[in-house]
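Hi V.,

You were right to ask for the full record rather than a summary. Here it is.
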Amino acid sequence: MTQVCLVGSEGVDLRTELVSRETAREALATYDLREEYENSLTVETISLGSAVALLNDLNWYLVRFADDALVLEPSVSETEWLSRDLAEAVRDGEIEPEATDRYLKVYGLTAEGRLVEPMFVARREDGEIPSYDLRDVEDTVVVRVAEDEFAG
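Predicted structure:
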């Protein structure tokens, strides 16, 4: 199953904003809503195509209430998320799945489960991601991004 994770903007209760709006509520009605990280909303979809379609359906709300939209596609990686743009490029055949691991955005994950400022990484060192060094965190969340998304 492909997962979609929407990360809410600071000062916004993402779940409340989405379920209080009829169109977003209808788009999410068939999904089991979970909170993967603080102020996030995660759902499982049946495919990469359906994940991208859901993000397209929610685009108006994502622009206003979310900082990030992530896709976890097991055929690409079991542990590293894809950015929305990269997921769409893979779905459309513009980039091969094995070519998605060059540019990374690595979020810190606090003990409270909050994603904090991302560190951008342009290459792995001996196949490993460099240590997150922007602050002390419990863990990290790796997001593969497209070249044009790299560093902002």
